[in-house]
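ok trying this again, last paste got cut off
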Amino acid sequence: MELLSTPRSIEINNITCDSFRISWAMDGGDLERVTHYFIDLNKKENKNSNKFKHRDVPTKLVAKAVPLPMTVRGHWFLSPRTEYSVAVQTAVKQSDGEYLVSGWSETVEFCTGDYAKEHLAQLQEKAELIAGRMLRFSVFYRNQHKEYFQHVRMHCGNVMKPSLKDNSGSHGSPTSGMLHGIFFSCNTEFNTGQPPQDSPYGRYRFQIPAQRLFSPNTNLYFADFYCMYTAYHYVVLVLAPKGSPGDHFCRERLPQLDISCNKFLTCCMEDGELVYHHAQDIILEVIYTEPIDLSLGVLGEISGHQLMSLSTADAKKDPSCKTCNISVGR
């Protein structure tokens, strides 16, 4: 039997967080003969791709020949925001069960995408299942070290400026490394209705009335749901003034929440004043997308401990947790 031509001119497009489309060129005579495609897919950080040790042993992914381009999909071997290399080989399955194979194509590299809105909507639905009842609150707060606030006062004109979100949480979150904002908390202790006196982020706390950040002129977005190998679960929300750059960024990428009716964080008018509630059974991380002057709130020192074990700075999500993972790339 004649040898097969080596696949060439590989093209990859329609890339998502857990799929891509691939096509290549091969000699016309091969089109009718080829019965299978072998696809060698490797994370870029592992340069040692597992080629065939013997030419009749299939590679990682085996597919029956279909018209090209073909879609490769699978959350069990594709992760979001991850660089991969891919090479292909064509084969003809012979009557004795052995394969006649082509040479390997050139290796092409690509990077998978972020979660799309539909993936985040699935995370949102899972988060809603454990959010719990709503508790009333009145302030957002931000803990940092004393040096942080000294720097804001001395070098930033007394204004806290948005910074780039780190890579904590779900690997596929479109906000990580992309959205600028200022992190706030709003959780309260159910028995006192006040913010806890402990924090993982520093002993100095800036508190600001909730209406300064959250009002009918603010849009609210769901950004992430994750845990860090603990029983605690975190939900990341974004508050963006309507029409702001942060609002435009989120509108294209994140599910928008009704500010007066959702399971996480609400703002409602009652008896002529705005009333605020947060979910009891999750830890909310709220990103506000605009600068904030310290004069709009109060700065003080907390009396509790600095619980470093609860810090989420660059925290990696537990990929095995059934509560906060979905069946796409993690």
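PB: full thing came through this time. Helices lie at 28-31, 117-130, 146-155, 210-213, 245-253.
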